[in-house]
Structure formats: C-alpha cells, structure tokens
Write a structure and sequence with these properties.
The structure is a homodimer.
Chain A: H1 28-38, H2 44-56, H3 60-69, E1 74-75, H4 76-83, H5 87-99, E2 103-108, E3 111-116, H6 120-135
Helix pairs in contact in A: 4-5
Chain A binds a DNA duplex through residues 1, 6-7, 9, 23-24, 55, 59, 61, 75-77, 85-93, 95, 107, 109-112.
DNA sequence: TGAATATCTGAAAGGATTTTCAGTAATTAA
DNA sequence: TTAATTACTGAAAATCCTTTCAGATATTCA
C-alpha cells in the first residue's frame, strides 16, 4: 500500500469554536472534556483483542482459505492446490485460524479436513465485500 | 457445505481447476463438489482489497483513534495526548485513515481537526466488539 | 516391510508495518 | 519580528508477519 497523497495545505479555514479545545497550555479545558467520555474510549486491552480479530481477516490468503471453506470442507493438500499455495504455508495459516477458533478440523486417515467454525466471520466478510462493491 | 448466505457475487474466480488438485488419489466426491464451486472462489484481487480494508482495522492504535473520533472530532495533538501516542505516530496513522477515506479533516488555524468519514466501519467495529464480548 | 503421501513444526529468510527521529512549513502569540 | 505551537514528512530503526526450507511423524499402499 502506498499512501502518498499530500494533505491539502491551502484549505480555507472556517470560523470555529476553538475555545472548546486548546492544546496549550497543557490541555486544561479539554482535559475535562476528555474525562467526560474517557470511560467510553476503547481500552488498549480491548483494542488489542479487536485488532487481533480484524488482523485475522487482514490477509488475502487467509480470506481465500475462508472463502473456500465456506463452500465445503477440504483437506490441506486440496486447499493448497486450489489456492496455489504451498502446503506448508497453508498449514501455518490454518494453525492461526485454528488457534483463533475460526476453523475446526477432523482427521480422516492421513488427511485432515478443515471446515469453518465461526460463522460470524461470514457476515463480516459479506459486509465488507458489499461495502467495497459500493465504493468502487 | 453451503451456509445459505448470498455470497455468490463475492466469489469471482477462475483459480480452482480440478486438474490442479494433487491429492492422491484424488477424492471422487470432493472433486465433484469442487467443480461445482470452482467458479466461486474469492479472486486474489478482491481478496487483496478486502484484506487491505480489514488490515486498516487490524491495528489497536488505529482502532483507538477511530473510537475517540466516533465521539467527537479532535485535533492531532489532543488525539496524541488522549491516546498517549506521539503526535508523529498519530499523524502517520491519520494519513492512512485519510487516504482510505475513513476520516476527513478540517483545518482551523494551525490545528487540524479530524472526524469520522466512513460510518460503515462503526458497524463493523460494534459487530466485532459484541462478538468478542459474547465469546469471552 | 519399504516407499509414497499428507501434514505439521521451528527456524530463518524475506517482506511489510509502525514508530521514532530530525527537519520543514504554517500559524499564532509575545 | 521572533519564538512557540501544531502538524506533516521521509528515512531509519524496531517490530511484526508470512513464507520457505529442512526435517519429523503418521498413515496408507504395493
């Protein structure tokens, strides 16, 4: 991703109630403001857990794995062949998805079949897919 | 396995070819199934765009920035003070959020006030927050 | 039994991302 | 006008992630 859009520095400033928020001297006024809703700011701990969840879906190969498993359960080697990934890479990603309880598995002979476990992600997936369709 | 969700338009794909599958012996039953769905796998291009979107939410500091902006617009230095981040780090993150059109900004004097632009993310945000509350 | 297959694993390589650092520019205050 | 404040930026440092590589184990097949 390349984010190289310059900020528009010729922005026409509008009249504002700057007295509401002043950074200096060290935030006497807005500190009160911030305290008012500080109890509603996402805690670092919860932010971390949410970020981990979103990050799970933040990899194209993991998304493709999930999209295939949404259709049918598959063994590792079929997943690898279907997605054109190495079996080792697929296995590593499946472990991540396994640990985070997004997929479950069942061993059959020397193969291991994986399937979706968390159907909640499908709704997120669909929601974002539609969103991207809209804004394109 | 079909979970009966209208996902078909999300699966624009051509990557699954039965002859690519290399499990030995190839599974007769699964192979038939795969053929049925082979045109519906998430394409690499779309997977990439979806992954970029999810990755945006896959950082705890970006999530905390969004959670604060969900309550009120704020300038960079107040964001930095509130979130205990350097102003530079906040500025870098705001740029990515800006480029991806999740926030907009307005310059007032020497301050730049940021606010949420894409309220779609709030729904995703709340959805995952609730999900994590459930499963804890 | 020995060979082939399927999967998993840790470590290292190779990338990508995030923060810090140092500097610049614009605006305001003294 | 000069100093202070606010925000942005590129480059480097520090982190984090993903894949490859080189085995290891278990299962099936001939």
């Amino acid at each position: 991703m390349n984010y190289n859009l310059p900020l528009d520095r010729n922005f026409v400033g509008s009249e504002a109630k700057i007295e509401d928020l002043k950074c200096h001297p060290p935030h006497p006024i807005e500190t009160e403001h911030l305290e008012k809703f500080s109890g509603q700011i996402l805690s670092s701990e919860k932010a971390q857990r949410m970020a981990e969840f979103f990050s799970l879906l933040g990899d194209s190969n993991r998304l493709r794995i999930l999209s295939v498993l949404a259709r049918q359960e598959l063994c590792v080697c079929d997943l690898a062949a279907t997605l054109d990934m190495s079996e080792s890479a697929v296995s590593h990603q499946l472990r991540t998805l396994r640990v985070m309880r997004l997929v479950s598995y069942e061993k059959k002979g020397r193969k291991v079949f994986y399937r979706l476990q968390d159907h909640h992600v499908l709704k997120l997936y669909q929601s974002v897919a539609e969103h991207l369709d809209e804004t394109d």
